[in-house]
Every structure is written in structure tokens, then in C-alpha cells.
Design goal:
By secondary structure, this protein is α/β, with parallel strands linked by helices. The protein has 5 helices and 5 strands. 44% of the residues lie in helices and 18% in strands.
Length: 125
């Protein structure tokens, strides 16, 4: 089954990008990857993603700063954002959820759960 739109994976780890892209491609999901917020904004300026998978711990602009920024913009305010992070603390979970994150997946990732949730979001009209 093919899904409309694409998922944007933002993670400074190329390994994590490749893993998530392969898992989602296998399910018929188109994926774009970015290693930084700057790269992510370049993708977003061309086409708004349907879902964003976002790491918190990144150099320069953190995932939290990125999330704050997209929640201020009309075009990106309502994009579902799934946090995927090794920073599995209550503080990060609460902070990202208060900023409008849709889901919080600690690493190691519950892969079947993540894929299921992405497909659910992409199935919405």
C-alpha cells in the first residue's frame, strides 16, 4: 500500500536515518532524511511532510528548538511530530509533549509500534 505525502526523518545519526527509511519504505512510505534542522527546513520549504520523526539531541539546533519553531509557523503547526530519542527522561517527554509532540519513542525504538503509528497518521485524510 502506498501512502500520500512523505515522512521526514530528522536525526544527526546516518545509521538511524537509514534504518528508519528502510523500515518505512518497506511499508510503502516515502521518506526524506535530514541530518540537521537546516536540512529539514530545506525539505519543508519544497513540500510539507505528513509526519516528522525527530531526534532531540542534535548539534546546533536541538530537536526541541526545531519543534518550537515549527509550532509557530502556520504551515507546519499541525504536522504530527514523533520524538525518537535516547534522551528518555520525564523532563524531555513532558517538554516535548507540552510543545506539541504527538508521540514519544525512546531508543531503542519499538519498531512495530512506530511503524504502526506512522501508518495510522498517514491513513488520515
Amino acid at each position: 500500500m502506498a501512502f500520500n505525502g512523505y515522512v521526514l526523518v530528522i536525526d544527526d545519526s546516518i545509521t538511524n536515518q537509514v534504518l528508519l527509511e528502510a523500515l518505512l519504505n518497506e511499508e510503502g512510505v516515502r521518506v526524506e532524511t535530514a541530518s540537521s534542522a537546516k536540512e529539514a527546513f530545506q525539505h519543508i520549504s519544497k513540500e510539507i511532510p505528513r509526519v516528522i520523526l525527530l531526534d532531540i539531541l542534535m548539534p546546533n539546533v536541538t530537536g526541541i528548538e526545531f519543534l518550537k519553531t515549527i509550532r509557530l509557523e502556520e504551515l507546519t503547526r499541525y504536522i504530527p511530530v514523533f520524538i525518537i530519542t535516547a534522551a528518555n527522561t520525564d523532563m524531555y517527554r513532558e517538554q516535548t509533549m507540552m510543545l506539541g509532540a504527538t508521540e514519544f519513542f525512546p531508543k531503542p525504538i519499538d519498531i512495530p509500534g512506530l511503524v504502526k503509528r506512522v501508518k495510522e497518521e498517514l491513513s488520515k485524510i
